[in-house]
Design a protein that fits this description.
- By secondary structure, the protein is an alpha/beta fold.
- It has one domain: Rossmann fold (3-Layer(aba) Sandwich).
- The chain contains 7 helices and 11 strands.
- A hairpin with a 2-residue loop joins strand 3 and strand 4.
- Helix 2 crosses helix 5.
- The longest helix is centred in the C-terminal third of the chain and has 22 residues.
- The chain is globular, with a radius of gyration of 18 Å.
- The two termini are 24 Å apart.
Length: 284
């Protein structure tokens, strides 16, 4: 069982018919079960692992997603790149519903989500100044443009706790602070991918203007636009995945180098065993 590229499907992408030779696997992790069984297969000659973050049928709230289990399971399978698909609201008039954003920055407004693999006696401080892999993000933006979809090649994604949408006051403040899109799932997913030394980039599909636009967020319209966006996402994935370089030139895959600050003689055997897929390059 192995894969090199992970796809985490969000609202509007629960499955993909693009995967050939598909078969499902269950993965256990020290952090519990992932959101769902993982589908392994092939897209464009590349080994893929697909995971729906909300589970089939959208049964898991953004606040309840076990992101540690999701990322750890993909790491155990050998994944070194993750393409995250996420539905978002727009905070700027020029970022319109059905546009696609490949964000380059994050702002964290979540409150109750475990956001690190390193705790209870082992500490690591990874760099997170640039939370999305620049190499993978550039490829996704270029592919989207080639497919003639309206794409914004950068932008700041503010991640709120949810599952409620923003108040009008929150939406106006988020807009005044210069954020571009708002969603509920990029974090802690991106932080954990960095700790796992996995390149992480996002296809953010815009479903609506947030409530700053003086209209309520209408779930019916959001669901309708999700369906429209799903076709675009599948076309982008089909074209982008075969074009991902075999070797990465970014720094994502060495993020833990020098980041584990706990003295090695103080790291317990239990930690070494449980976190082995993450720390094997640095701690024996």
């Amino acid at each position: 069982m192995k894969a090199e590229i992970g796809i985490i499907g969000g609202s509007g992408l629960y499955r993909t018919e693009l995967i050939k030779e598909a078969h499902k696997v269950e993965i256990d992790t020290p952090f519990g079960k992932p959101s769902d069984v993982i589908t392994l297969g092939v897209i464009g000659g590349r080994e893929i692992a697909f995971l729906p973050r909300h589970s089939a049928g959208h049964r898991i709230s953004p606040s309840e997603i076990n992101s540690r289990a999701n990322i750890f399971a993909l790491k155990k399978l050998g994944v070194n790149r993750i393409i995250s698909v996420s539905a978002v609201g727009s905070l700027k008039e020029e970022v319109k519903p059905l546009d696609i954003v490949v964000p380059d920055q994050l702002f964290d407004r979540t409150k109750i989500r475990p956001a690190t693999f390193f705790s209870n006696g082992i500490v690591a401080h990874v760099g997170f100044a640039d939370p999305f892999c620049p190499e993978l993000s550039k490829l996704l933006a270029e592919t989207t443009a080639k497919k003639k979809y309206k794409v914004h090649g950068k932008g700041t994604y503010i991640c709120i706790e949810g599952p409620q949408f923003s108040t009008r006051a929150e939406s106006r403040v988020n807009r005044q602070l210069g954020f571009d899109i708002v969603g509920m799932t990029a974090l802690p997913e991106a932080k954990l991918a960095r700790e796992a030394e996995i390149c992480y980039a996002m296809i953010a599909t815009v479903t609506d203007y947030d409530v700053w636009y003086e209209q309520d967020v209408n779930v019916e319209i959001i669901l309708e636009n999700m369906k429209k966006n799903e076709a675009a996402v599948k076309e982008i994935l089909k074209a982008a995945i075969p074009a991902i370089p075999k070797e990465s030139k970014c720094h994502c895959q060495s993020a833990l180098a020098g980041a584990i600050v706990t003295s090695e003689d103080k790291i317990t055997r239990n930690h070494k065993v449980l976190l082995e897929p993450l720390i094997r390059k640095y701690i024996k």
